[in-house]
Design brief:
With 397 residues, this protein is an alpha/beta fold. It has two domains: 6-286, Rossmann fold, CATH 3.40.50; 296-389, Oxidized Rhodanese, domain 1 (3-Layer(aba) Sandwich). Helices cover 34% and strands 16% of the residues. The chain has helices spanning 22-27, 29-32, 38-47, 59-69, 102-113, 131-135, 148-161, 188-191, 204-207, 213-230, 276-280, 299-308, 320-325, 338-341, 359-370, 382-389; strands spanning 6-7, 49-53, 73-77, 118-122, 140-143, 165-171, 174-180, 239-244, 249-254, 296-297, 312-316, 331-332, 350-354, 376-379. The strands form two sheets. Strands 1-4-3-2-5-6-7-8-9 form a nine-stranded mixed sheet, with helices on both faces. Helix 4 runs parallel beside helix 5 (102-113) and helix 4 runs parallel beside helix 10 (213-230). The longest helix has 18 residues, at 213-230. The relative contact order is 0.10.
Length: 397
């Protein structure tokens, strides 16, 4: 797969003098009249090279504000396509972009916002094989990813290359921002030496996210990036900023560089990139359909049996708010309550368990099998597959 699918312009020669045109002076005038920025700071922005990993929830506001501020060269890494579920929060894209590669839609929008900057696009999955080659071209790395393997990869590559890593993460109503990999500052492994067990932390697709949250967190990442470029203010080095949108409260935790960190400590043992999927386990949106040994039934087969009038007990193990979005008319017992309510089930009846995608219901089937249930099936693909294969009027979410 190509690692650099499009570069909009050739970099200016190193010896070329850097200045602002009359049009640029007008465009950036609100920066220029600030003594903390001025001509010197704006020229630093023009010469800066920033790589944005991801163009989604965090990458959208980040890319917009870096482009608007006049960061001279912006790299974008993404391999996804725009989906209608992205539009609730990923403000780089519009309805007309659904189905387009995110990298193409993002670069078009940023070039329209500021045609004077250079946009490099990398339509690829960032990996241990290409990360060092891509990251070494930029001054600052900004992590807008949503999975643990890529976060560890970005962190390790940034530290090995000596690049600051402006980190952000979001979930439901909460966000985090800090700067890793700064001289004498901590790295991601200092904060999280080990990844969580696979599946413990839901992805945004599984747990949801308030649409405005990535806008807030991504904008803070953009502010930190601009501060690092112009050398103004106090960067979030050694400080983890926590934001709670429900309480509308910011908190700050002090982070210390771990002298025993295997990457950035006194005696590092990690000197090259590793297999991060193996290190973290596959989880979240990157995971393929779970390979389970539980007995399954396809949506079409279930529909045929229901039409025949077979006596089936449809068990919905989703949450009540999901049931309100759409349902198959089954009996709702959330997975977390199943152990306490198992007595409500009749083991003599055949049970078909389902959830959104089939993952939680597979866990429910395994639990019920251990509890002695024998006539139980998992609806393969969950309610999403039912919508695709049987009844498209059932909303997808």
């Amino acid at each position: 797969m190509a690692t650099n699918s499009e570069i909009s312009a050739n970099p200016a020669p190193a010896s070329a003098p850097v200045s602002l045109s009359k049009e640029e002076i007008l465009r950036y005038s609100r920066h220029l009249i600030m003594p903390e920025v001025g001509m010197e700071g704006q020229l630093k922005l023009k010469q800066a090279k920033v790589l944005c990993i991801g163009t989604g929830g965090l990458g959208a506001p980040l890319g917009l504000y870096l482009a608007a501020a006049g960061v001279g060269r912006i790299g974008l890494v993404d391999f996804d396509t725009v989906d209608s579920t992205n539009l609730q929060r990923q403000i780089l894209f519009g309805t007309k972009d659904v189905g387009r590669p995110k990298i193409a839609a993002a670069s078009d929008r940023l070039r329209d916002l500021n045609p004077d900057i250079q946009i490099d696009t990398f339509e690829t999955h960032l990996s241990s094989e290409n990360a060092l080659d891509i990251l070494e071209r930029y001054d600052i790395i900004v992590d807008g990813t949503d999975n643990f393997p890529t976060r560890y990869l970005v962190n390790d590559a940034s530290v090995l290359l000596g690049k600051p890593n402006v980190y952000g993460s979001i979930f439901r109503f909460e966000g985090q921002v800090t700067v890793f990999g700064y001289p004498d500052g901590p790295c991601y492994r200092c904060l999280y030496p080990e990844p969580p067990p696979p599946g413990l932390v839901p992805s945004c697709a599984e747990g949801g996210v308030l649409g405005v949250l990535p806008g807030i967190v991504g904008s803070i990442q953009a502010a930190e990036t601009l501060k690092l470029i112009i050398g103004a203010g106090e960067p979030l080095v050694g400080r983890l900023l926590l934001f709670d949108a429900l309480a509308m409260r910011f908190r700050e935790l002090k982070l210390r560089k771990n002298p025993d960190c295997p990457l950035c400590g006194t005696h590092p043992t990690i000197t090259k990139l590793i297999d991060y999927v193996e290190f973290c386990g596959i989880r979240g949106e990157e995971a393929p359909a779970p390979q389970t040994s539980v007995p399954e039934i396809t949506p079409r087969d279930l529909k045929a049996r229901l039409d025949r009038g077979d006596d089936l007990y449809i068990l919905d193990v989703r949450e009540p708010h999901e049931y309100q979005i759409c349902n198959l008319g089954g009996h709702l017992i959330p997975l977390g309550d199943l152990s306490k309510r198992v007595s409500e089930l009749d083991s003599s009846r055949e049970i078909v368990a389902h959830c959104r995608s089939g993952k939680r219901s597979a866990e429910a089937v395994e639990f019920l099998q251990r509890a002695g249930f024998r006539k139980i099936l998992n609806l393969k693909g969950g309610i999403l597959a039912w919508s695709d294969d049987v009844d498209p009027s059932v909303p997808r979410y």
